[in-house]
Amino acid sequence: MTGIPLDEFGIDDLRDYRRFLPATVAHGRPQGREIPALTQGRARLVVTAAIFCVAVLVICARLVDVMVLQEATVTRLPHAASTAYHASRADIVDRNGVLLATSLATASLYADPKLILNVDDAVNKLTRLFPDLDRAELTEKLKSDKRFVWIKRNLTPHQHQQVFRLGLPGLDFEKEERRIFPTGSLLAHVVGLTGVDNHGMVGIESSYDKTLRGGIEPLHLSIDVRLQHIMRTELQASIDEFKALGGAGIIMDVNTGEVLSLLSLPDFDPQNNNDIPPDAMFNRATLGTYELGSVFKIFNSAMALDSGRIHLDDTFDTIHPIQAGRHTIKDYEKMHRWLSLAEIFQYSSNIGSVRIVQQMGIPAQRAFLDKVGLTTPSPIELPEVGAPQVPNPWREVNSWTIAFGHGIAVSPMQLAAAAASTINGGIYHPPTLVQRDPALPVPGHRVISPETSDKMRRLFRLVVTSGTASFAKVPGYVVGGKTGTADKVVGHGYGTKANRTTFVGVFPMNNPRYLVLALIDEPHADASTHGFATAGWIAVPVVGRVIKQMGPLVGIEPVNEDSPEIHQALDINARPRSIAGATP
Q1: pLDDT band at 105 (very low <50, low <70, confident <90, very high)
Q2: pLDDT, mean of residues 277-305
Q3: What's the pLDDT tens digit per position in 240-268?
Q4: Digit-coded pLDDT (tens) for 25-53
């Protein structure tokens, strides 16, 4: 039947044909012994599908746990499994939070010479990688009997990887820290530097070494990086222009003693502290002590006025020079008449200053200089602090020369703090490089009365408006100050072509807030100064340029300097006003 074509069958034939089909397929479904096998297969498929579904559910549940639940847990508990690096030395920041010094984790390379298989091969590879390594010294180290020798400290990540790729047995790494100074040389003499073992060597890094080691909170300095940059730019420009040996610059808040800028030039890069020249390492602002010249007339005048024995309009003989042994005390510019105390300050008369101290006497002079911190080292928080050179015994001739800034040597930092005390209402505030807590009272002690301080402000202003510091004028900022030009000691006497020029500027004089000091060491005159190398031509313009730029930064609004209020507050001929708010 299988050979007969189906299309030859009729309907009835098909019904008959179904009778010949096996029973298992005759009715279109399994029958007989085939049923158990199919049932078992179906059960296996169901079980397999169930297992697959369970696996998918497990995977989905795990994904939800990892991506949602655990992420939420980490968000809620950020320190639960933190691997953040915690430096063993605290950061140093400026008063605005700008980072000045921080620590980074580094790897340092060392070797176990006993495990070095081929010393020559190791030396060749390492010196190619680090050309600064001494080949002979490295060979000696790797041939020694020691089990530990340093090869190179504080590798960069790239250097670390390069050494690792060398695959040299006997080399390994020690985890260390490296101190980083983001501002480079800008604050070298303030922040200082650390040694290879990350201990402070100079500057704040040294004086606060114990505080910084193991510290967590950053050390906040009083420094303002913005003002430091301005001061460095202008001071360096003057040093370059007048081919000077170096200089120092200070900006101070006269009402707190906080130092906003401290600079000594030349300076150095604390990040590359190998072979720093001694002149660059020397801090001229705090360690150097100098005879500073006529800026000392600030203290001679304040002492006399505060005594009540001498007044602004008292006059003194400045016509006749004063003989001091083999030397003659005379004025740089002769006035050929008697001068009042105000004019002595205005024209910077040496003869007049001596006449004043002759009336006051040695005990009064020494006591006053003690009171304003000029006979003891500055309390500034640096290890580089110079001791003042004070005459002993303190004879009459010493008192005469000290009256105009010779015969006594002090640091610019001492000068700045002492000068601030004469115009801030009469309070000496110890200078500080660490930001003061505004909730605590500012330390200090009274040195002159508020009334005397008011008179000193008028004298400072007079020097800028009608005296030796006209280049310090900055319209709107009411600048005052005092110049000083001091011959340098050469051999057993004073040179005639080597000096130091200093200017102490303060603004605004009607309500003093900031003192700006510039010192230029051994400048050389040029055509722009008409052959003069005095403070009025060299140091004064530096301070003027600094004040012009810093005024807007520190939020001082310019005023009309010709207004009646300014005239009443500062004109030397106006009646002095009483100063309020200055407390001992």
Answers
A1: confident
A2: 97
A3: 999 999 999 999 999 999 999 999 999 99
A4: 444 455 555 555 556 666 667 667 667 76
Give the integer Cα–Cα distance in Å for 234 and 513: 21
Strand, helix or coil for residue 487: strand
Q: What is the pLDDT of residue 174?
A: 87
pLDDT value of residue 37: 58
Q: How many CB atoms lie within 10 A of CB 125?
A: 17
Map residue 540 onto helix, strand or coil: helix
Facing residues of 529 across strands? none
DSSP letter for each residue of 552-567: HHTTPPP--TTSHHHH
Q: Considering the domain boundaries, does residue 378 fall inside one?
A: yes
The Cα–Cα gap between 318 and 417 comes to 30
Are 560 and 526 found together in one domain? Answer: yes
What six digits make up the tokens of 259? Answer: 């130092």
Burial class (CB in 10 A: 0-12, 13-18, 19+), 451: middle
In angstroms, how far is the first alpha carbon of the chain from the final one?
133
Residue 284: both structure tokens together: 């001229």
pLDDT digits (tens, 9 = 90+) for 342-367: 999 999 999 999 999 999 999 999 99
Closest CA relative to residue 248, chosen from 197, 284, 199: 284
| Pair 210, 292 in one domain | no
The 8-class DSSP code of residue 424 comes to S
Partner residues linked to 481 by β-bridges:
505
Amino acid at 536: G
Q: Are 433 and 499 part of one and the same domain? A: yes
The one-letter code for the residue type at 404 is F
Residue 560, in any domain of the structure:
yes
Closest CA to 512 of 422, 377, 433, 405: 422
pLDDT at 302: 98
Local confidence band at 20 (pLDDT 50, 70, 90 cut-offs) = very low
Determine the Cα–Cα distance for residues 539 and 14; give it in Å rounded to an integer.
127
Instruction: Give the contacts of 140 (CB within 8 A, at least 6 positions apart).
Output: none
Residue 110: phi and psi, rounded to 5, are -135, 170
Q: How many residues does the chain have?
A: 584
Helices (H) and strands (E) in the chain, counts: 21, 18
Residues 427, 459, single domain; the answer is: yes
CA 224-229-233 angle, to 5 degrees, is: 150
> Distances in Å between the alpha carbon of 119 and those of 135, 160, 165?
11, 20, 17
Q: What mean pLDDT is predicted for residues 510-527?
A: 97
Determine the residue type at 292: L
Residues carrying an active site annotation? 294
Beta bridge partners of 519: 248, 502
What are the pLDDT digits (tens) for 370-412? 999 999 999 999 999 999 999 999 999 999 999 999 999 999 9
**Same structural domain for residues 216 and 275?**
no
208 and 291 inside one domain: no
Within a domain: residue 424? yes
What secondary structure letter does DSSP report for 50? H
Domain that holds residue 431: 230-570
- Strand locations in 354-465 (E): 427-428, 445-446
Put residue 332 in one of left, alpha, beta given phi > 0 → left and psi -120 to 50 → alpha: alpha
Is there a single domain that holds both residue 132 and residue 270? no
Give helix 297-307 / helix 412-423 axis angle, nearest 10°.
30
| Other beta carbons less than 10 A from residue 190's beta carbon | 29
